[in-house]
Amino acid sequence: MNSVIDRTLAESGVPAGSNCAPPAQGEPYLLTPGPLTTAFSTKEAMLRDWGSWDGDFRAMTAQLRQSLLAIAGDTTNEYDCVPLQGSGSYCVEAMLGSLIPRDGHALVLANGAYGKRIASTLGYLGRDCTVLDKGDYLPPRGAEVEQLLDANPAITHVIAVHCETSSGILNPIEEIAAATAKKGRKLLIDSMSAFGAVPLDVRRIACEAFVSSANKCIEGVPGFGFVIAKKSALQEAKGRSHSLALDVYDQWDVMNRTGQWRFTPPTHAVAAFIEALRLHALEGGQPGRLARYANNRDVLVAGMQTLGFEPLLDEHWRSPIIVTFFSPAHPSFRFDRFYELMKQKGFIIYPGKLTVAESFRIGCIGQVDAQVMRRVVDACAASLQAMGVDHAAPRARS
Fold first, then answer.
1. What is the DSSP letter of 318?
2. What is the model's pLDDT at position 15?
3. Which helix (H) or strand (E) holds 341?
4. Pairing mode, if any, of strands 105-110 and 157-161?
5. DSSP state, 316?
C-alpha cells in the first residue's frame, strides 16, 4: 500500500523531550473537552483528606474564588465567584434558574448540543425562550442578535455558548456581547470549555455572568463548577431559584458569611484545583495556556490533513479546545473500531455530535503538547492502516 498513511508511519518515531509529563503508567491520554489528562502534581494533591469546615479548607475556597476573579479580569470588585458542587450542566442550570427572573425571556444562541441543552433546561425551569439555531457549524453573529432583540422587546437575556464543543466552534463572544449591550439586554455565557484559555475579560466583554468548570482549561478534576457574576445580579437573585441545591444566591450568601460551602464540598477536587491554578499561573496564565492549546490544534490539523482527514470548520472559527473531523468515506472505516485502535495506542478520542454528517472529535486541551499531538497523528495513521483504509478523505458534501 503506497499511500500517505504508509509514509507517515515510516517517518514517525518516539518524540523526545515533551514538555507535558505522560499520564501514569497504563493510562491513556484523554483527548476530550474534559475530563482531561491532568498533571501528576494535580492528582497528587488529592492524596490528603480535608475537613470541610476547617479553617485551612475555607482558606482554599477563598483562594480559589479570588484566583478565578483575577483570571476574569475583575479589577473593580464588581463581580464575585460562586463555586457549586456538581457537573458543568448543574452549574449552567443554577445560573439560568437564579439569574433569569421567572417572568424573563431568554434568547438562546445555539449551534450545537450545548445551546440546545440550555433551551431544554429553560423549558424545565419554566422560562420563556427564543432559539436562534445556526445548525452545526455556523456562528451566531452580532447583527442577527440585534435584529432579534429589535423584533422582540420582551427578551430580557441573551445566552451564548463560548466554545460549542459538539463541533469545536469558537463563537464570536465579543461581537455578541457588544450587540447585547447595545440593545440594553443582559448576557449570560456558558464558557464551560473555554474559560482559562480563551480570553474572557469582564472589562472588555460586558456580561451579567458566566459559568465554567474545574475540569476544563484550568486542568483540574471533575467535581464542581463556578458562576462568576455581577454582585448586583447575585443580589437580585434572592428567592428566585426553583432549587435549593442550585440556588446561586444562597450559596454566595453563605460563603460570604461563613467561608463555607452550604453542603458537603468536593474537598479533594478543590485541593486538586488549587494545584491546577498554580500550574496555570506558572504557564503564563490564560495567554500561556491559549498559546499551547492553539499550537496543539495547529499541529493536529496539519498532521491529520496529510492523512486526508478534513476538519469540519474553517480556520477562522476553529477553537483551540477540540477539533471535529469528518469520518473517512472509505468503506472499511468504522468509528467504533477506530476508537478501540486509538485507545490501544494510548489515546481516548471523542465520537461526533453532528446532526448532518459522520464525524469524530479530538481534544487539544489538558496535559498535552505538540509532540503528543504528533503521536496522535501517527496513531491515526497506524489505526487506518490496520483497518485497511488507505485514505481518510470524507464523502463529498452536497
1. B
2. 38
3. helix 335-344
4. parallel
5. G
